Design the sequence.
């Protein structure tokens, strides 16, 4: 219901007319393999070159296109960017008009315990963030891949979904368990490449993944689509431990993520696969193909409406003075309240309130650390609030 999300207002939306992003308009997909997007030290201290395979609809002439950055499964130990499922999902989404990428990431850990699994997940998510920054860098400079920087999505299967969920919702160092010792890994953003650009995404695609804590999801976070089998013995559908091993960390699967997303107002869809095991969509048998079709259609149908909304884009990842401002309640009814972050020098700033059609309906001077904006005669619906030093916020008036 409520939608209150960090985003900077994008001028242009994605054109979805003519069945684009729903029907397979492109019969051929061009695949460019092994594009270098970064590098970083792996678990042994050896520098690993990070690569991605890029899938583009052949013959496409659209100037700025949405991109989905996918990561493969493999428990942070095995797997490849060109595995059967990655190839299939990247191809099918590219046939609709998306640009898709399947990425390498750093794998490996020992021994099998909560600390080392958690550290491996952080390293891998750092790499995914670098891949997202890679596309924003290209969009701001060479424009080789013709990416719309407002519409970058993160997705993955199993371990790859853990990564996408971290990119979308693990945004504070304080949310990382102390036993992982994040400082030894750097920051959540990491140093895998393409600094100075945002790793923020417009939505998360979670296929058989989990989070370390449902509290990572907070009001204002980006939309989420999940697909998960209820008989998953590797990544629990609700709450449990990976592979059922007592030495692995306690994790919260899609069945636990959804009620949290609902409670804090994050737009989300969960496709529950009743009685299905782990990653049932990965395979070439008839049952796997049927599950794949369901998964593909769920992702397709969730993403397409988001393309018709102003997206999320940040040219730089550097924080601004009001980026941590609080906006409440969620959803708003009679008033909208803003509180500047404590300990940050406050300077007056003009704000713009824009409706879902891109029309500025109010300009407000924010003069003091706390501001109350009366609703007045504003109708119910989706709005965007932004200003100098305040990355755009999406909010819902009921």
Sequence:
């Amino acid at each position: 219901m409520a939608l209150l999300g960090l985003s900077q207002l994008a001028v242009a939306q994605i054109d979805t007319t003519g069945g684009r992003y729903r029907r397979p308009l492109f019969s051929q997909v061009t695949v460019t393999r092994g594009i270098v997007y970064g590098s970083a030290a792996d678990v042994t201290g050896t520098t690993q070159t990070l690569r991605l395979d890029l899938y583009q609809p052949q013959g496409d002439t659209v100037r700025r296109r949405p991109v989905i950055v996918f990561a493969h499964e493999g428990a942070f130990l095995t797997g490849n960017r060109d595995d059967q499922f990655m190839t299939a999902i990247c191809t099918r989404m590219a046939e609709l008009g998306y640009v898709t990428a399947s990425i390498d990431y750093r794998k490996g850990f020992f021994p099998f315990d909560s600390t080392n699994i958690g550290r491996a997940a952080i390293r891998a998510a750092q790499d995914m963030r670098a891949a997202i920054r890679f596309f924003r860098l290209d969009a701001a400079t060479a424009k080789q891949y013709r990416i719309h920087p407002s519409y970058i999505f993160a997705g993955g299967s199993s371990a790859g979904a853990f990564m996408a969920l971290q990119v979308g919702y693990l945004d504070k160092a304080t949310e990382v368990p102390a036993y992982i010792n994040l400082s030894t890994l750097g920051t959540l953003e990491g140093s895998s490449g393409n600094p100075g650009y945002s790793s923020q995404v417009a939505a998360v695609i979670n296929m058989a993944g989990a989070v370390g804590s449902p509290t990572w999801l907070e009001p204002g976070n980006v939309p989420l689509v999940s697909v998960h089998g209820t008989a998953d013995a590797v990544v629990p559908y609700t709450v449990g431990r990976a592979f059922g091993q007592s030495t692995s960390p306690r994790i919260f699967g899609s069945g636990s993520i959804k009620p949290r997303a609902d409670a804090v107002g994050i737009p989300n869809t969960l496709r529950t696969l009743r009685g299905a095991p782990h990653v049932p969509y990965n395979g070439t048998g008839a049952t796997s193909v049927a599950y794949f079709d369901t998964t593909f259609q769920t992702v397709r149908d969730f993403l397409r409406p988001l393309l018709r909304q102003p997206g999320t884009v940040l040219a730089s990842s550097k924080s601004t003075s009001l980026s941590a401002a609080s906006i409440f309640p969620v959803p708003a009814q009679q008033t909208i309240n803003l509180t500047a972050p404590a300990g940050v020098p406050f300077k007056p700033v003009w704000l713009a309130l824009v409706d879902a059609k891109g029309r500025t309906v109010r300009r407000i001077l924010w003069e003091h650390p706390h501001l109350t904006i009366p609703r007045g005669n504003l109708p119910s619906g989706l709005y965007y609030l932004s200003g100098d030093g305040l990355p755009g916020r999406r909010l819902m008036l009921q």
Remarks:
- The mean pLDDT is 88.
- The chain has two domains: 17-306, 326-397.
- The two ends are 9 Å apart (CA to CA).
- The first helix runs from residue 84 to 96.
